[in-house]
Amino acid sequence: MTATAPLPRHRRRRTVLLRWAVVLTAVLAALVGAGWIFAVHVLGSVKQTDLLGADAATRHADITGPVNVLLVGTDQRADQPVDAARSDSIIALHVTADHRTAYLISIPRDTLVHLPADPATGFAGGTNKINAAFQYGSQRGGGISGGVKLLAETIRTAYGIRFDAASVVDFAGFQQVVDALGGVNMCIDERTTSIHAGLTAAGKPAQPFTEDSAGRLHPVRGVTPVVYEPGCRHLSGAQALDYVRQRNLLARGDGDYGRQRHQQQFLEAVLAQTGSAGTLADPVKLDRVLTTVGHSMTVDTGGVSLPDWIFDMRGLNGGSVQTIRTNDGKFDSVNVPGLGSCQLLTAASRQLLHDVTTDSVGTFLAAHPDWRGGGATGGSSL
């Protein structure tokens, strides 16, 4: 297969896989727990559109059996066209047939795959990093829907997973949700130096590094980067976003897998805070959180109404959502001319994704218990 040319590099505004979970786990659970008046209120603010097209699993009027949801985070900024954004976070959310357990499986954005052709945009297909699928699908008028459709088709072609629903959340929405919660409590598990946030000698915010076309970082003279030291602390929305964006200067040198782990920890923290007594018992705060979530989402419900989704997923809560690391959080890299360093999924990771199609992820985890993510409240144990 011939590698497709890499698309132009753009300034990154990282979003996180976790916003999805807020939508389809914590938020659903919180809505049910808080009562239908809040559910009706927030549902009115959710944007709904066809994201999956013909590649969606059979559309249905109710939800039975196992469910797969494609969760996508993009790096699009408000001043950036849709077709300039790649999918920075890609998660397969698998809900078991009894709708009581959910698994969040992150697919590394640099995973090397074959991208199918997209006649709608004139894209001929080829080998590339999986996060390029969203950008190629969104070009020439494809927009967000085109990006999600090509990404979903890429995952189905590569791993056999068909999705029943999909969701996309924007950067501003992510930060606003955390701020609406009043921040989030997280345990930092490794010294993390920010390449995006820093301070000048006068205490003014400034970017501490520049990045050249080859992805190399260059310190900016007179700017000290923000450093997140190990330990538990309360983070604002801006701080949480900055922390989970980082992959370059992590103390463990674990790159994207470290960022993936931090995003999963963040998800668990948001789930815990959304379902906490302090949030559920405060009608004004809960209203603000859920309305913010609704405004930040674009969803394809697969033909099922949002109230039905909420009712059928009422058995899910923060404790029933499990995060899983692909490749057990270890690198399996290959250098591809024109694409740079790409990730390969191991045979075990491909088995994990196959087990999504047979609703047997629990069996896989029983055999690979160390693949579980987590640790939002106990970072030192990771």
TrEMBL record:
Transmembrane segments: 16-39
Cell envelope-related transcriptional attenuator domain span: 86-273
Gene3D superfamilies found in the cross-reference section: LCP protein
Keyword entries, A-Z: Membrane, Transmembrane, Transmembrane helix
Keyword Membrane: yes
Keyword flag Amino-acid biosynthesis: no
PANTHER family: POLYISOPRENYL-TEICHOIC ACID--PEPTIDOGLYCAN TEICHOIC ACID TRANSFERASE TAGU (PTHR33392:SF6)
Family named by the database record: Belongs to the LytR/CpsA/Psr (LCP) family.
Protein name: Transcriptional regulator
